[in-house]
Amino acid sequence: MKRRSNTAAAAFLLGATLVSAQTFHRLGGCPTLGCVFPPDQTDFLSGQLFDIRLEVHAPINGSEAHNAGVPDEKFTFCIQNGSKGECKNATQFFGVKEPALEKWTFSYYEDLFARDAKTPAVVNVASKAYRALSLTKPGDYVAKLKYNNVSQTVAHWTVRQPATTRKAKNVLFFIGDGMTQPMITAARLIAHKSINGRYQSLMQMDQMDNLGHQMTHSLDSFITDSANSATALYTGKKSSVNALNVYADSSKNSFDDPKVETIAELFRRRIGGPIGIVSTAYIADATPAALCAHTRDRNQYAAVVYEYLNSANGWNTSLPWPTSCEGPDVIFGGGAEQFIAGPGSPNGTDYYKAFADKGYNVIWNNTALQAVGTSKKTLGIFSVSNMAKWIDRHVLTDNLKGQKNSPNGDGTDALDQPGLKDMTLKAIDILQARATSGNGKGNNKGWFMMSEAASIDKMMHVLDYDRALGELLELDDTIRASIEHLKKIGEYENTLIVITADHGHGFDVFGGADTKYLAAQTDERKKRDAIGVYESSGLSGYTVAEGSLPTNDTIVFGSEGPNFPVQWNPRYAYAAGFGANPDHRESYTLNQNGPRVPATKGDDGTMHVNPTDHTDGFNVGGTLDGTQGQGVHSLQDVSVFANGPGSEAFRGVYNSIDIFFKIADALALGNAKN
Amino acid sequence: MKRRSNTAAAAFLLGATLVSAQTFHRLGGCPTLGCVFPPDQTDFLSGQLFDIRLEVHAPINGSEAHNAGVPDEKFTFCIQNGSKGECKNATQFFGVKEPALEKWTFSYYEDLFARDAKTPAVVNVASKAYRALSLTKPGDYVAKLKYNNVSQTVAHWTVRQPATTRKAKNVLFFIGDGMTQPMITAARLIAHKSINGRYQSLMQMDQMDNLGHQMTHSLDSFITDSANSATALYTGKKSSVNALNVYADSSKNSFDDPKVETIAELFRRRIGGPIGIVSTAYIADATPAALCAHTRDRNQYAAVVYEYLNSANGWNTSLPWPTSCEGPDVIFGGGAEQFIAGPGSPNGTDYYKAFADKGYNVIWNNTALQAVGTSKKTLGIFSVSNMAKWIDRHVLTDNLKGQKNSPNGDGTDALDQPGLKDMTLKAIDILQARATSGNGKGNNKGWFMMSEAASIDKMMHVLDYDRALGELLELDDTIRASIEHLKKIGEYENTLIVITADHGHGFDVFGGADTKYLAAQTDERKKRDAIGVYESSGLSGYTVAEGSLPTNDTIVFGSEGPNFPVQWNPRYAYAAGFGANPDHRESYTLNQNGPRVPATKGDDGTMHVNPTDHTDGFNVGGTLDGTQGQGVHSLQDVSVFANGPGSEAFRGVYNSIDIFFKIADALALGNAKN
């Protein structure tokens, strides 16, 4: 892990007072006034496509004010292979034309005092971008931006030695969005029966062959969002919050930032097999989007859907990015608002029709999902917005009513939604059929699928622990069923299965709560007496029928089988919490009427306790600023579980970007001969 | 993991209303009125010693009232080897005499309402205990307690097939008390420099060859304490909170509960090599105590120290427990109050003298530690109570003054305390010398050491995140140095190194805090605006000198070297929290005057915000009952890292009890021929 050190940075800056060095960045990845993207410490897969963006900054004011705000337009940029070679001008090195000079201005706040005082620092920028390049020769490279006569920014790049032998035919990549080991532990507690401290069954994740940890931090902040982290997992590049497969430059345009090629694009380009995207989120959400889309702004939902079907340049169609997902063979999820003609869809058009016009089967419910053939590309959009949660689909089904979220946009309820398992198993069948038939290029060189349990994260955000754990258990059930299904169709031994998360939430169970006692107390502080810790945490109330004994003779299973709780709302509930949360109220009971809303906007315009949430609970003061009505992501390393060919590589502790390289190596995607 | 199910439990109980089934147990491990310890689902190492305790309960009142409170004294107990053999009376099976009948009464509250109403359930007990037995033949056993004519309690026991080949000569077992992966991630963030999302160095734990997870839950509650969890790690048996190497029976006597043999006792008995105990806690604390002591009450500190040196029966010296630690070769830690003649020491005597009388070198400071010879057994007690924290020994050294904690009891300050690294390296040298010389039996068959970073847990309890992470970094530094030292003395290839925790705390980092801005605000709610999340979390302020840029040219190290922060109190600090906490105040600044005290007792007798703690911070309301002035343990699985012979076995996900069996197998301790 020890890397080359940059000893050549601008000396004159070192003495400057940088009140904002560690937060409120002028631009992430660019601590000096000269910026190179991809930045220092970037690794590439051999042949992976990427853009280069150079920026030279001249702040007009603030602690870094420089040259009266006039940036050096005569900066130069060269690249050298190895530590001793000649540093060749980039145009010569890559055999491309000199790009046009671009100029713009942006502003930012150096710190919170400046924000309060409304005194932004204004920065003028001179920039160039080189598009759609690649490096194929493994080894170290040095890229140097020289500017302001005396300054240079040096980026050390490495093209990793690629695997030459392909180990895995198929890749099934599961993401439990926001899923941490404390959540897996809690899910095990409520779903798997334990007798005298010994579990009688285990999570499927517990039983995987290989275990690892990955570090989720971002390029320029130690907490990530799902766009940023998915970019790391799919491209092997750390980026910035909200960025999808681009480095965030300082320009306003969300579609001109420097791109990097994703695992899905590489799979299409180098192997040509079918790819699938499955998520319980709206399908333009960050984690599914990041397989195909390239934009600095994850909220460009219409563009994301456009990029699934068309080029990966979004609304900036003049750029020469040559690869795309070429229309994934399977797209299953929610998010009908990007397909129903209207404000959310690309150019306001009927985007179901756009997909159908390109030969897709288009389906809207589980009945159709089960019935649909496996030969054609298939778009399954099963609801407006995020799909319904496992608990609401299986336990509290009345909550599906009145949502007016039918994917066809007719204002009825999406009552017949599939679960993650339904979608994933069908996706396997379609991918497998298309991999072995003419329609899917038929080279039988395998398939690639990402399947996301999106609402682990979404329900943890709203402190709806039960729903989050329901989603986690559904993911585990899906993994179990997928393994069985792959065995049945003879592809298990050919398939690398990887399960991980993109980031965490600081959730943990710390005790038990007697919910009956809690509700019966009228005093806020006395309610907290219902919380039992250590020996008073008790045993799991979720795995036994109410009133029964925790012995073997009382093993019963709920209607959903042995891997789910027998009851979801026991008197003795687990008590859990977060490292950070908005103002809210806790009673540790199941939210009966659908996903929780812990905080709502008060008269002062900031977020306070939702007066209708857990009304019999006690108040818990928040630790976040008043704009946050939900919990937030956290720092902790997340687990990686893997089975199948190439899975041994997933053992141990590593960076999130390594997941990309490990999968790429299992597929030998970096082998130029491939 | 699928185990045999008990289909024969008392049918008449199943219909009873058991308001307390999941919490406020009558007796952990005994959901029916007949109790067998070791309970159902127990695994044994071949030849491991254990006691059996049988209890038949007759509650006088409450929901389980039975036979007017008269327990069946004519219960029978038989054991059968395999599923089909004859169930032989225990006296016949083990070739022992019938134990005397014991009788007692205890009471408990069925739930919190009963506690508030002061209406305990009273239970009369008839009991017998069989002492110091063992099972050597691998396979399944069934133990049956028959009582009340129609009832029986069945315990399925398994003697695991032991390893026949010894892989490891030495075992170095590190415990980071309370250490979770989120803490390791946070420690990495503050101590290891990252550039553009790539760490330039890593924790030693990150670099270990094998990674696993272990489940820490207890026998009868899903949250454990350190006594209970250490019992699992050292004996392979889940037990109850506060119990040290015994199953908790219902009698008042803390020294009559059924014992199980520990890894340290087994190492002494079967191999005869030297053993060492090192901890930064007072040495009678649960985690060190659990290597040698046997008592239901971890607070019997004097007895623990007595048991180190003498028999393992504590104050119940009539019991026939035949093994003990035989006086560990090395005991290093704090806790002078158990050695200075007075109320804390065994029988009020000078226990330094008791150790010296048995041939120990006795030392009291780091100077003496460095100077002491390696041939004799050595007792090093370096402070009253817990030892000083890393931050106070290295950064805020003035905090060592005025403590009046000198281990010699003269009321001066213990200024010359060693750290975990000092103690561990010296312990290795003593154990190695004694393993190869006549004094330590000299069979060169290796040594066993447990080294504990105790104050990760203690500082997390008091929400002193910085001190906790300092202790964690000291542990990591100790592991690194131990590996180097073992290589130097030629024992690295012979030594199994295992690092794990005994339980967690629900700690995680969720963002950054501008501590300057926070302190400058006067409004409670406005102070929370200082918390930055996602992109505003920023980069680590701990790895760079204040005001410098996060580039390679600014790599500097603090005085403690590359594996510790450059500064501990940066303007931009990490913001962290817990799933559960007492009322307290947060400002995210380093506690300058020593370990934090977040809450103190208010006028109402319960715990409230400490008015002198983080006075410039904002209030965070608690989520625990008013008796809790500290944070509490949590559920999450904890990491296991392992190197050396036998370490491959530590991969994957398993129960805490498996750690015992994995270490025992690496040493072939279960091999009867050993």
TrEMBL record, chains A, B:
Domain of life: Eukaryota
Pfam family, one: Alk_phosphatase
Residues that coordinate or bind Mg(2+): D177, D285, T287, E452
Cofactor descriptive note: Binds 2 Zn(2+) ions.
Active site: S226
E.C. number: 3.1.3.1
Signal peptide boundaries: 1-21
The protein's required cofactors: Zn(2+); Mg(2+)
GO molecular function: alkaline phosphatase activity; metal ion binding
Keyword field: Magnesium, Metal-binding, Signal, Zinc
Enzyme class: hydrolase
The keyword Translocase belongs to this UniProt entry's keyword annotation: no
InterPro entries for the chain: Alkaline_phosphatase, Alkaline_phosphatase_core_sf
Residue positions binding Zn(2+): D457, H461, D502, H503, H633
Family from the record: Belongs to the alkaline phosphatase family.
Protein name, as recorded: alkaline phosphatase
The organism of origin for this protein: Crucibulum laeve
Lineage: Eukaryota, Fungi, Dikarya, Basidiomycota, Agaricomycotina
